[in-house]
Design a protein that fits this description.
Blueprint lengths: L7 H9 L11 H21 L5 H34 L10 H41 L4 H36 L1
Helix pairs in contact: 1-4, 2-5, 3-4, 4-5
Length: 179
């Protein structure tokens, strides 16, 4: 696959955001919550509800498509915030000294970058879930293909939900500092 269509860098960048700030090592709790918890939930959900009915498929396609559009808008909003900050030379009118302001700007830029990576990853999870749903609808389903595609749909839905909660927390932190 050419680099134009490769999504590996988006996945790598998202995983880089799951590090502890103080020692720059992987945060096991974040990795478990972001990847293993969705896996377990997908298996449980597939065990108790192993099929996708047409009404659920329609709702999922609609919801995921809307979230993709909203998350892409969030990317542009974050870009405009960063652009405005860089146009002002990274300075804002405050009573803080220059060193405090510089450290705070570095934290904001890091948080913006990490949120940007998380938003990209959540869009990617939505797209993967949509592809799995479309394959579920279009392909003649045998028992194993039905289970595999159902698992993929549920897994990426749960990954998306967990990542969306992380994005919500980060945007809250970013915007509470902006206003």
């Amino acid at each position: 696959m050419t680099t134009k269509f490769s999504n590996l860098q988006i996945i790598r960048d998202h995983i880089k955001t799951l590090k502890l700030y103080n020692n720059n090592t992987a945060d096991r709790t974040s990795i478990i919550l972001n990847f293993f918890l969705p896996f377990i939930l997908a298996v449980i959900f597939l065990y108790f509800h192993n099929f996708l009915i047409p009404s659920i498929i329609t709702v999922l396609i609609t919801v995921l498509s809307i979230f993709i559009a909203l998350l892409l808008n969030l990317l542009f909003l974050m870009y405009s915030i960063l652009s405005r900050r860089l146009q002002n030379g990274g300075k804002e009118p405050s009573g803080k000294n220059e060193n405090e302001s510089s450290n705070e700007d570095k934290v904001r830029i890091r948080l913006l970058r990490e949120t940007y990576y998380n938003v990209q990853f959540s869009v990617l999870a939505c797209v993967y879930a949509l592809i799995a749903i479309i394959l579920y609808v279009l392909l003649p389903l045998e028992i194993y293909l039905d289970l595999v595609l159902g698992f993929i749909v549920y897994y990426f839905l749960f990954v998306f939900i967990v990542t969306l909660l992380m994005i919500l927390k980060r945007t809250h932190t970013l915007f509470s500092r902006e206003f």
